[in-house]
Amino acid sequence: MENISFFDGRKIPLERHKVRIVQKLKLIPVEERLVRIKEASSNLYLLHNKDIFLDMLTDSGVNAMSDRQQASMMRADDSYAGSESFYRLEKTVQDIFGMEHFLPAHQGRACEKVIADLLVKPGDIVPMNYPFTTSKAHIKRCGGEVVQLLIPEGLQCQSDHPFKGNFDTKALAKFLEENKDRVPFVRVEAGTNLIGGQPFSFANLKETAALCRKHDILLIMDASLFQDNLYFLKTRDDECKDLSLREITRAVADQCDIIYFSARKLGFARGGGICMRESELVNPLKELIVLNEGFLTYGGMSVREIEAIAVGLEETMDLSVTSQGPEFIAYMVDELEKRSIPVVTPAGGLGCHLDALRFVPHIPQEQYPAAALAAALYIAGGIRGMERGTLGESRDAYGNETIADMELLRLAMPRRVFTLSQIDYAIDRVTWLYENRDLIGGLRFKREPKILRSFIGELTTLSDWQEKLAEKFSRDLPNSL
Ligand code: F0G
Question: Distance (Å, rounded) from C-alpha 68 to C-alpha 71?
């Protein structure tokens, strides 16, 4: 916490903002939660928001906006071409990342689509510290493959390694020596999502960039979760701790050729874009943006959102803003660890991640333990998390399950949205569930999509465990919803 200590020694994340617009929440009774999860085929994406008490599904597009962001939206300049709003965002992005060109897109995966369309051809391989679902899907769509080259500590749920998102640079060096002709670019992800929001260090990024330069290969950073990585560079990395957030950002950007981001995360609004230096790629990418996203001065975004992103990016350079997410997450992770509940450590960005392999070790990965845990936590508390495991993978060419490296239930922490008592409530319900974990059972598909199946797949339980869990909750907490 930034220079504020409690006299009584407690370590409590202190909000550095006040709440001035609120939205009412409803907690429906456990009997009704059971009905709703059945109606939603145990897939939390299929729930209605009105039936959810704490929506910890994602931080995407649901971060709280500041008064300054809201105010900026009022001056939005609506025009198909040449909007002043766009030029304000372009200037902000240029100032922050120090790159000349900014190509707007409607969200992160749209950036991934045009980059893959331009650069990836059948037979190509893209090395990544760790793939994200949509980045991998677009590369595969273009006939390419991804190779994951994370340091081994990255896949250990419990660790004290401060930078579990680091590239295994020895493995990368070897891979590039052997395969450079098939590598259109190297992708480094900031705040590595699927391993629990874990950062890379500055030294590691520099080594990665040097390897790319040696082989004349582009280094592309996915900066969607950059604000968390930035916070950890400031607080954990000796090389960065005396620099301002702005200086760290520029130093990171200087190592990269292209940076893209989802502004549903970075910038606390809704949109995205690609930042790049002058090169022969700029014009072909511009053409793809116009074809897929819209004209170069809006790229599928509303001009109001464009204004809000510009202000949100500026606010990201303020440590008292950027720290709020990681501090709340660290609080939740610490409290769960004190209760011996298996969580990903060290605390990362994005959210608190429960380790389903240790939470429900009796559920085999083919029965989707993280998805089962997600459904169980909804029954226990009206809390919606996101499955990050085998359910989110696709089957291989022979129809076999692709068993995920990790089975996580992500409890995302949209920035500046929840109060500490709501987080305490979530901790309490997770604790109750852990005490009753033996009651949780597995799931199987009743309708299985071919790709991105966690979004719209329909599941069913392998026994009546959900009914039993709801009954036990009513017995243990008879006077509570
Ligand atoms: N890259 C990363 C690292 C992401 O976390 C996401 C989205 C994207 C790209 C795609 O961006 O959603 O704007 O198209 N992550 C969301 C999540 C969906 O909940 O973690 P998008």
Answer: 5
Question: Ligand 1, atom 2: nearest CA belongs to which residue?
Answer: 224
Residue 215's identity, in one-letter code, is H
261 membership: H or E segment, kind and range: strand 258-262
What is the token pair recorded at 234? 């400031």
| Any ligand 1 atom below 6 A from CB of 63 | no
Q: Compute, in angstroms, the gap from residue 295 CA to the centroid of ligand 1.
A: 23
Q: Ligand 1: distance of its center to the CA of 108 in Å?
A: 6
Compute the distance between CA of residue 448 and CA of residue 456 in angstroms, rounded to an integer. 8
Q: Scanning the structure block, which residue is given the tokens 């769509």?
A: 141
- pLDDT attached to residue 2: 65
CA of 463 to the centre of ligand 1 (A): 34
pLDDT in tens, 257-278: 999 999 999 999 999 999 999 9
Mean pLDDT of 105-111: 98
Give the span between the Cα atoms of 63 and 268, in whole angstroms: 5
The reported pTM is 0.96
Mean pLDDT of the chain: 97
**Is 132's C-beta closer than 6 angstroms to any atom of ligand 1?**
yes
User: What ranges make up the beta strands (E) of 6-90?
Assistant: 54-55
| Best residue for ligand 1 mutational test, from 109, 126, 133 (most atoms within 8 Å of Cβ) | 109
CATH class, range 30-59+321-476? alpha beta
For 12-100, where are the E strands, in sequence order? 54-55
Overall average pLDDT of the 186-193 stretch:
98
Q: Where are the domains of the chain?
A: 30-59+321-476, 67-318
Cβ proximity of 64 and 416 under 8 Å: yes
* Residue located nearest, by CA, to atom 4 of ligand 1: 224
Which residue's CA is the nearest one to ligand 1's atom 9?
108
| CATH number, domain 67-318 | 3.40.640.10
Asked if pLDDT for residue 84 goes beyond 60, the answer is yes
The answer, yes or no, to whether any atom of ligand 1 lies below 6 A from the CB of 189, is yes
Mean pLDDT of 434-439: 98
Is residue 264 within 6 Å of ligand 1 at its C-beta? yes
Q: Minimal CA–CA distance to 221: which of 237, 248, 200? A: 200
Q: Is 250 exposed, middle or buried (0-12, 13-18, 19+ CB in 10 A)?
A: middle
* Beta-bridge mates of residue 125: 145
**Within 10 A of 342 (CB to CB), how many other CB atoms are there?**
19
Question: Does 224 sit in the ligand 1 pocket, CB within 6 Å?
Answer: yes
